[in-house]
Amino acid sequence: xxxxxxxxxxxxxEREGIIVRERSEGDRxxxxxxxxxxxxxxxxxxxDAAAHRVxxxxxxxxxxxxxxxALWSRSSTIPVVSAxxxxxxxxxxxxVLVAAGHGVELTGRPKL
Length: 112
What we know:
The protein is built from three helices and four strands. By secondary structure, it is an alpha+beta fold. It has two domains: 1-42, no CATH class; 45-112, Rossmann fold (3-Layer(aba) Sandwich). The strands form two sheets. Strands 1-2 form a two-stranded antiparallel ribbon. The protein has a two-stranded parallel ribbon with strand order 3-4. The chain is globular and about 40 Å long. The mean pLDDT is 86.
């Protein structure tokens, strides 16, 4: 997908109140896009209604999937794990610090 097409669709989603853009907490240079809480609630049953287990996977399992696992476990009773296709030797220190700043503890080790 071309960058101008992606930018167009992100702008539409932002205008409709489905996503919000936020600056990174680290150096404030990067912009992240996230789903606005409850933005899709009116679409139908919850996405986790029939889930028996949730798995978050990223490349290194050192930040994003670790954070997703920790946040999911705080808000759902459905079992959750995270994994990486090429696991790092440890969880990224920046992820641990950002998580701690929001009251989330990352205690796991990257796993395959």
